[in-house]
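Example 3.2
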Amino acid sequence: MDPCGSAAHPVGNALAVGDLDRAFALGLMDAIPCPACSADCVARLDRVQGERQQALAARERYRQREARLARRRLEREQRRAAPTVAVEDQHQPAASAVVTARPFEAPRVVSPALPPAAAAALARAQAKAAARAQGTTSPGSAALKPPSQGEPER
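Structure, written as tokens:
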């Protein structure tokens, strides 16, 4: 860097004619305004340096955003691929889980229709309904039983 600002003159001349490439090659970002230069020259140098700094900051933000989006896209693909890997890791799929859509397609493994917790809840509900149909009640269902014709309502 030139403490007296003499390096700013060639940069200022390049900016005056609109040659940004030459101004960058001459060290636009490192140029210190010359104390003897006019106010227009100093203002032009400051303005172009500020614009360039903003552009560099915007480019860095763009690159960070692209990296963040790529990372999220990769994580999303890994999450989507994880259930497929879990199905493939099982020793032998059930015969009913293998489906062939068309004769020319290879069979594919279909995941179960219900998650384990939902299947367990459905099984409990079906058992409760079957118990009601047979006339027996489970221990917690006495309060849910409708009153018979001879009993008063509570």
